[in-house]
Amino acid sequence: MVKKLPKTDAVIVGVGWAGGIIASELTKKGLKVVGLEKGLERSTEDYYMVHDELRYALRYELFQDLSKETLTFRSDEKRRALPMREYGSFLLGEGLGGAGVHWNGMAFRFLPYDFEIYSQTVDKYGKDKIPDGMTIQDWGITYDELEPYFDKFEKMAGISGEENPLGPKRSDKYPTPPMKHSPQMKMFKDATKKLGYHPYTIPSANLSKPYTNPDGISRAACQYCSFCERFGCEYGAKADPVVTVIPVANKTGNFDLRTHSWVRRILHKGGKATGVMYTDLTTGQEVEQPADIVIVTSYVFNNTKLLLNSKIGKPYDPATGTGVIGKNYAYQVTKGAATGFFEDKEFNNFAGAGALGMVIDDFNGDNFDHSDLNFIHGGYLSLTQAGARPIQNNPIPKGTKTWGSEFKKQSLKFANRTLSVGAMGSSMPFRHHYLDLDPTYKDTFGDPLIRMTYGFEDQDRELAKFTAKKAKEILQEMGADHIDAMDELGPYDITTYQSTHNTGGVIMGADPDTSAVNNYLQMWDMENVFVVGASAFGHNSGYNPTGTVGALAYRAAEGILKYNKKGGMLA
């Protein structure tokens, strides 16, 4: 029997960056908010002196249990999708803070081009530049409209950075200075300047100095310990929801946080949501939480899965191109990289931080001429120094035997004599890349899993080759004696880690026929449901997505407060 609780003003599904920001903003204005998080509660104390690469990086301490909840994958519709039972291409965070706990901290702003990608591409190059099947569309919002929310996110998180020479206008500087420059970063900076490019320090959520944000939250500076990605920060120096926005919501007394709460359905009647149904994982009890407003802020795959299982919105049909829920799944093209080997130079590669590095945007977005290129958009090129931890790092030149005396000799020689220039390439949506419910496989409660249909396209292969060539040129200018660079981008491989930058499925726009949510991330089909996160992206940029997720969350929070007062569709 389902246990029914008293109604609340708003219920949030998933308490990571988006859920934490919205909880903070709503509770500060007096709304009573229930936050439902599937995983366990976490605090900074959980990470005290736990620099354990085996436990966190290789045994996935912070991530979802794939035996209970996963997704199925196929590269095209002719194949049968199979469940992802081991982690590979991306990592699904679970627990309070979500992926905001284990991220590296790179906090870029998407470019003005991203938000008007269809219009700007057609205006400059004509419709023929967009290949058949590519389903890019404008986002229903401009950079200028979103800029104040970027600024708000950066000040809350204390982002450390310097102005991007090729970036769009800003209303204010970053709240803290850029991070320290290592010798490796200086080499990249000098080389790219000599090549005529425009290097700048990566905007970082790893604080460059102690900082107190506008909500009064104080945090310590980064210690450059190298345990950022896949780890929680024991110092609280890396901005994450647990040390920034969630404490603000808790302090108001208006936030009821419930961990171990697996939301399985959004309940609705007469075209409006009435609340959610979840299972209390500690007791097995099914619980109904009525609410005036339902806010879905879990990860990309679960946002789409929850809407489809709740029968909200029209499912996307790739055969006709109609429907919106599951449309425009996109990923990231991160294989366009090169590694340089130095015979006579040694580097302290073991030191670093998640977002420590230098970057150029000369080949990102539409910052360069695409007239004679067989792709649109682009990506950034960077040298990052996240810290080469001992288990997962063993760089050797291509052609080296992977066993025996030669392997040992080269491993020891190049352990601290390699530098890599990586590319974070954009990902364009295609008609046959989408999410839907798997007809065969189910989660631990018997609900259908989400199914991902995705593979690399010619667009991705051309972009990867282009960025790999540029990365090689930079390493040559840096003085590398030997360079291994990618020649061809092979098929998408879900078994090999690339990035956790999944996007799309509940995309935003100005037209209910082609988008699921408006520019406040309010559902067109159900006005008291807001779906917030990277699921709203109509494509993925040549940047890490978190900064844009944060900006959209602040805008959605503003919209929810407006809706709470007046109701109706927001304009």
Automatic annotation (TrEMBL):
Glucose-methanol-choline oxidoreductase C-terminal domain residues: 436-553
Pfam families, sorted: GMC_oxred_C, GMC_oxred_N
Domain Glucose-methanol-choline oxidoreductase N-terminal: 142-330
InterPro entries: FAD/NAD-bd_sf, GMC_OxRdtase_N, GMC_OxRtase_C
Domain of life: Bacteria
Keywords for the protein's UniProt record, in alphabetical order: FAD, Flavoprotein, Oxidoreductase
Region feature (Disordered): 160-183
Keyword match Chaperone: no
Annotated signal sequence range: none
Keyword Oxidoreductase listed: yes
Similarity comment text for this entry: Belongs to the GMC oxidoreductase family.
PANTHER family, per the entry: LONG-CHAIN-ALCOHOL OXIDASE (PTHR46056:SF12)
Protein name per its UniProtKB record: GMC family oxidoreductase
Organism: Tigheibacillus jepli
